[in-house]
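Is this the right way to post structure tokens for a design question? Let me know if I should format differently. Anyway, here goes:
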């Protein structure tokens, strides 16, 4: 019995690096690209970003998504000093509802993306963040562990 435990331990120790290495090498099934439309705004204006999710595989993938953008996207918005931008009351309420309901706060839309196909949506980040101060803001989103490019939005007088 003791020999079986030792053998199993050695086998696990040998296979562990292979499993971790293989997992690290796995490429994401989709890419995320964001673009501000426009990238220079006045205080109090909407901060609209276009989010494009593209199938990077040779097979059909799921494009299921929630009707609430923040349910399946993490949004990182930072000011010129690299500080996180304050969330507004709407975003705090959404995050609170997600915690109370195991992350599900809206209805879902089910769909798929063929190889090379993209899905595009536009979201107004000023609904969720206080972006009224003059200066430059960096924005990046993350969806299911996949990060988008980082963009800069400038608020001018």
């Amino acid at each position: 019995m003791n020999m079986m435990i030792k053998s199993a331990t050695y086998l696990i120790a040998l296979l562990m690096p292979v499993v971790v290495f293989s997992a690290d090498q796995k490429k994401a099934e989709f890419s995320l690209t964001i673009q501000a439309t426009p990238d220079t705004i006045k205080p109090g204006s909407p901060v609209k970003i276009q989010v494009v999710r593209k199938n990077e595989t040779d097979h059909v993938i799921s494009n299921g998504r929630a009707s609430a953008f923040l349910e399946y996207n993490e949004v990182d918005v930072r000011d010129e000093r690299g500080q996180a931008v304050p969330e507004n009351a709407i975003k705090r309420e959404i995050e609170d509802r997600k915690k109370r309901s195991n992350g599900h706060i809206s209805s879902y839309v089910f769909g798929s993306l063929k190889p090379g196909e993209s899905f595009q949506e536009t979201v107004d980040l000023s609904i969720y963040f206080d972006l009224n101060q003059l200066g430059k803001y960096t924005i990046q989103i993350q969806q299911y562990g996949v990060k988008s490019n980082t963009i800069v939005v400038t608020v001018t007088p």
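Format looks fine. Someone answered above. Worth noting: The domain at 28-155 is CATH 2.60.40.2970 (Immunoglobulin-like). Residues 1-25 have pLDDT under 50 and may be disordered.
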